[in-house]
């Protein structure tokens, strides 16, 4: 597939000249003929449903997962990711559907061999400190690394120049009621009342690398550990922390950083308190002007005034995060050669989920596609209005760690579709459905923010971002894809009024949630201390940075005189 030339600016988008929505079909003049046509459509879709479910039951999803496993990690813009995108494009073409691409260019950060390119060693005794994982897009050191004294990043980062900042990172158990609304158990599902998760801890409470660099640090270490004096904290062990690709939403920081956990973290904190000298190596590679594509296709429907969006993302670090394209391709296959859908269907395979700053300055990766293509969902200037969406991520994610399958349903119709599945299916699944509270996890969030009712699968096992994770439940994956197929076919024969609109939380309830979150942090000794220290560290670091700039500017003015 030929690609258009793109500009050099990171994140710059280029669109292909795609299909343009046509006008809606003319209404028929007689009620009897309309009723007859509706009966015919219902009959056609029942046949399509039976054919689709029969085909899905016979599909070898184990083979599809094995093919994905052979590609290895598919970090955004990596060769394996580009290969996966091209394979998706070829499969779309084989279905007789048009392929459209939105291309982005950005500076890619990568490690050739994480086991040798990522290390931390104490200089006093030459002892190697086991590193759990690298901090993605933190920085690079070159093969020799950087050497400096370890220094705890407390409230006030005085004398941080040339040092390696060590951050004590909490791993809190957060009440689930602060994250979701209307949680309901399906089958054997039972979501825990509190949840501690690597993505949450790294994103919300991880090292402030920008502040550390501003204070003059040459490197950083995030130490995950459990405070035994405070039982509300989770336990981030060395085993759980190993190979975690977190966090992934921040811009490039230009200061190398790694993660250490468990007992190794406790020892490192002791060494930091005594000012031990260490060498940090993060021998990464920066690849400017890396190209990555979002791929999408359209199945035009009878009513082109309305559309349904089916979304997933293509980048990931293992066969769970992300295998959603397997499911979305199956849904596209249902309509590629079948009866004409009632409304236009748009199947979107976005890039950038693991490098959000490369494609958008806010939201999730799907935000970039929605911004670029209002002609397929906005309902403005003759464009179809998206009346529903399906977001497929993390198929077959195992609940071995006690966190069951999680699906968001953003209005009562979507919730009823999932509850209907519970009543009609014989198989027991550990699943729960919920409504977003302050935000929604995953690529369903942009649809929620734009008022598009949706069902979004976003299961979050603790090993979701572990690069070596191969825990895919093939039976569960098949059932989930069948559930989405039934949901799509059910939505097809519902009117826009029957589908309804999003049920959003009232402003008072949102403010109440923020207050509850503040009270939760205030009552948790570990979090309260961390938030206060982090705020002081950030403020002081930027004050030091501003003062240095002022001094430098003053010297330049004196030299000019």
What does the model show?
This protein is α/β, with parallel strands linked by helices and 561 residues long. The protein has 2 domains: 14-22 and 30-106 and 291-498, Aminopeptidase, CATH 3.40.630.10; 112-180 and 194-283 and 530-551, Glucose Oxidase, domain 1, CATH 3.50.30. The protein is 36% helix and 21% strand. It contains 16 helices and 19 strands. It has helices spanning 31-58, 61-71, 79-94, 114-117, 198-205, 209-214, 238-241, 262-273, 324-336, 365-372, 412-424, 445-449, 474-492, 496-499, 507-523, 525-560; strands spanning 14-15, 100-110, 118-122, 133-134, 146-152, 164-169, 174-175, 180-187, 194-195, 219-224, 257-261, 277-282, 285-299, 303-313, 343-350, 385-391, 405-409, 430-436, 454-457. The strands form 3 sheets. A 10-stranded mixed beta sheet has the order 1-2-13-15-14-16-19-17-18-8, sandwiched between helices. Strand 10 (219-224), helix 7 (238-241) and strand 11 (257-261) form a beta-alpha-beta unit. The longest helix has 36 residues, at 525-560. It is elongated. The N and C termini lie far apart (60 Å). 47% of the residues are buried.
């Amino acid at each position: 597939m030929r690609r258009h030339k793109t500009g050099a600016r990171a994140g710059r988008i280029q669109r292909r000249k795609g299909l343009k929505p046509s006008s809606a079909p003319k209404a028929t003049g007689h009620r009897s003929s309309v009723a007859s046509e509706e009966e015919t459509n219902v009959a056609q879709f029942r046949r399509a449903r039976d054919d689709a479910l029969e085909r899905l039951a016979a599909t070898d999803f184990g083979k599809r997962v094995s093919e994905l496993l052979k590609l290895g990690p598919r970090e955004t813009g990596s060769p394996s990711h580009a290969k996966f995108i091209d394979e998706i494009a070829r499969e779309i073409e084989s279905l007789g559907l048009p392929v459209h691409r939105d291309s982005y260019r950005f500076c890619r950060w990568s490690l050739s061999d994480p086991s040798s390119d990522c290390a931390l060693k104490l200089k006093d005794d030459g002892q190697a400190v086991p590193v759990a994982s690298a901090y993605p897009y933190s920085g690079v050191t070159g093969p020799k690394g950087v050497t400096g004294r370890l220094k705890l990043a407390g409230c006030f980062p005085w004398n941080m120049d040339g040092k390696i900042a060590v951050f004590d990172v909490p791993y809190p158990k957060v009440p689930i009621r602060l994250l979701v609304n209307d949680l309901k158990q399906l089958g054997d599902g039972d979501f825990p009342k509190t949840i501690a998760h690597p993505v949450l801890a790294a994103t919300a409470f991880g090292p402030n690398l920008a502040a550390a660099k501003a204070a003059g640090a040459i490197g950083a270490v995030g130490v995950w550990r459990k405070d035994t004096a405070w039982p509300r904290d989770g336990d981030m062990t060395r085993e759980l922390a190993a190979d975690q690709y977190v966090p992934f939403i921040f811009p490039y920081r230009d200061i190398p950083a790694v993660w250490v956990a468990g007992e190794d973290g406790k020892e490192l904190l002791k060494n930091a308190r005594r000012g031990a000298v260490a060498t940090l190596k993060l021998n990464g590679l920066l690849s400017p002007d890396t190209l990555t594509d979002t791929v999408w296709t359209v199945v035009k429907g009878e009513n082109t005034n309305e559309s349904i969006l089916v979304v997933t993302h293509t980048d990931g670090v293992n066969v769970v995060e992300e295998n959603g394209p397997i499911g979305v391709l199956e849904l596209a296959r249902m309509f590629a050669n079948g009866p004409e859908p009632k409304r236009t269907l748009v199947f979107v395979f976005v890039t950038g989920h693991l490098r959000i700053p490369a494609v958008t300055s806010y939201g999730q990766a799907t935000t970039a596609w929605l911004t670029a293509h209002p002609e397929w969902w906005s309902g403005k200037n003759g464009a179809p209005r998206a009346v529903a969406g399906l977001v497929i991520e993390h198929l077959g994610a195992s609940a071995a760690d006690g966190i069951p399958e999680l699906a968001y349903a953003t209005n009562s119709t979507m919730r009823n579709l999932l509850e209907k599945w519970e009543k009609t299916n014989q198989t027991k699944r550990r699943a729960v459905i919920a409504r977003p509270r302050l935000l929604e996890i995953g690529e369903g969030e942009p649809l929620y923010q734009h008022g598009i009712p949706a069902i979004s699968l976003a299961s979050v096992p603790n090993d979701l971002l572990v690069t070596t994770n191969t825990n895919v439940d093939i039976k569960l994956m098949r059932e989930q894809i069948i559930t989405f197929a039934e949901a799509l076919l059910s939505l097809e024969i519902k009117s826009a009024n029957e589908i309804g609109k999003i049920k959003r939380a009232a402003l008072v309830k949102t403010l109440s949630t923020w207050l509850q979150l503040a009270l939760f942090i205030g009552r948790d000794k570990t979090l309260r201390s961390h938030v206060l220290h982090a705020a002081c560290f950030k403020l002081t670091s930027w004050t030091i940075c501003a003062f240095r700039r002022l001094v430098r500017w003053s010297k330049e003015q004196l030299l000019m005189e």
